[in-house]
Automatic annotation (TrEMBL):
Record has Glycoprotein as a keyword: yes
Ranges annotated as spanning the membrane: none
Gene this protein is translated from: Sparcl1
GO CC annotation, single: extracellular space
Keywords: Calcium, Disulfide bond, Extracellular matrix, Glycoprotein, Secreted, Signal
Domain Kazal-like: 25-81
A GO molecular function held by the record: collagen binding
Source species, domain of life: Eukaryota
Record localization: Secreted, Extracellular space, Extracellular matrix
Coiled coil location: none
Major subcellular location class: secreted
Membership in a protein family: Belongs to the SPARC family.
Protein name: SPRL1 protein
Organism: Horornis vulcanius
Length: 158
């Protein structure tokens, strides 16, 4: 058997051509062995697959397409229902991402003060302003006008 020691990547199986030469072809997802419920996996397309064999066989069959490049194992287990975002959540997303980025930058800046080398000098100088503003605003009560000014300034900074 020419396929005995011939290995293929996930989602492909060995097949001998007419001359007996082995090569890899896509695994037929329907031909995958049956699995137990606890072996289900969730793909990045938010579809539940009976197992990794079925997921990678499907990915192989989609090779060369946008969907094939985007399909990966997301997590073990059946896919969870993800409700569509509300208009409010969509509106809040950029603000939440901005706050997340600010927090990450501040954490890097604080680490960089102890062990330099995480940020470049240019990055350190830019983040220093955000860090100082954040620490100043946390320290006490400020008029709404000052908070608004800092918000607008920082919004454009990062």
């Amino acid at each position: 058997d020419t396929c005995r020691n011939f290995h293929c990547k996930r989602g492909k199986v060995c097949h001998a051509d007419k001359q007996g030469k082995p090569h890899c072809i896509c695994q037929d997802p329907a031909a995958c062995p049956p699995t137990k419920d606890y072996e289900h996996v969730c793909g990045t397309d938010n579809k539940t697959y009976d197992g990794t064999c079925q997921l990678f066989g499907t990915k192989c069959q989609l090779e060369g397409t946008k969907m094939g490049r985007q399909l990966h194992l997301d997590y073990m287990g059946s896919c969870k229902y993800i409700p569509p975002c509300t208009d409010y959540e969509v509106d809040q997303f950029p603000l939440r991402m901005r706050d997340w980025l600010k927090n990450i930058l501040i954490q890097y800046y604080e680490r960089d003060m102890n062990t330099s080398g995480i940020l470049t000098e240019k990055q350190r100088n830019k983040v220093k302003k955000i860090y100082q503003n954040d620490k100043r605003l946390v320290a006490g009560d400020h008029p709404v006008e000052l908070l608004l000014h800092d918000f607008e300034k920082n919004y454009h900074m990062y």
